Amino acid sequence: MCELLAMSSSHPATVTYSMREFARHGGLTGDHADGWGVAYLEGQDVNVFRDTDAAADSPYLRLVSDRKVRSEIVIAHIRRATQGEVALRNTQPFARELGGRVHLFAHNGDLVGIDRRPELQLGGHLAIGETDSERAFCVLLHRLSSVWSEPEVTPELALRRRIVADFAADVRGLGPANFIYTDGDAVFLHGHSRKDCADGAIRPPGLHMLCRSCTTGSDSIQFPGLTLATVTQRVVLAASVPLSDEPWIALGEGELVVLRRGVVVPP
């Protein structure tokens, strides 16, 4: 199955160390060799880098790492193709406009029969590729379009959380539905279940989370997984599997966590 990575931070930071370890799973220590992508939010827009080659061997990923791109929100994905051919149109994360800003989505799992469920309507958000993941994103955007109706107006977080939670409950019935979604204001983590590489069984957890904080006066000080950018930095990392020897927290089956500026937002 594919793997996910995300970061939410209080100030712009890099994910160089975590991204390198994550990329190793894309064809070196793991078999997720059918493409990769990483997106860095920048205001209401986004820098997206995607490639259909294995992440572990990609010169483009090395270029991105060397540039040390900073952002407060980062979402990355490495792919093992199960639906749709190996092509750029099927490579995540997916980026779409809604309400005058870019929204991002990355999914890990198989949503069998999503195209045959009448309650999972796309509205005007049509898929470009053939993956169940992109179709799921279109369904979510359709449901969110009613609240993202005015440019430069961010809907209440509680309302957005409820829509995402209802969407997650609907797609969980189709198969593993681990996903990371952001509207540029908040990051939504949904943990479900995923295939165990050791025995092939599908079980939770499908997503893990790591919270960090640090105070420093130097921009050059390194933290494992990120480079600190300001005096006080709070960071939450999320990944399909832990990327370091630290106390990662496994999300419960069907658990939805919302992040804002490096902090978990209580329900």
Major sheet = 7 strands, antiparallel
Number of helices: 4
- The low-confidence parts are 217-223
Query: In which range does the helix fraction lie?
Result: 10-25%
* Percentage of residues in DSSP E strands: 25-35%
Task: Explain the overall architecture.
The structure is a single chain. This protein has 267 residues and is α+β, with helices and mostly antiparallel strands. It has one domain (3-265): Aminohydrolase, N-terminal nucleophile (Ntn) domain (Glutamine Phosphoribosylpyrophosphate, subunit 1, domain 1, 4-Layer Sandwich). It has helices at 16-24, 59-67, 132-144, 157-172, and strands spanning 3-13, 36-42, 45-51, 71-78, 94-98, 101-108, 178-182, 187-191, 194-195, 202-203, 208-215, 222-223, 226-227, 232-239, 249-250, 255-260, 263-265. Strand 2 and strand 3 form a beta hairpin. Helix 3 (132-144) packs antiparallel against helix 4. It is globular, with a radius of gyration of 17 Å. The model is unreliable at 217-223 (pLDDT under 50).
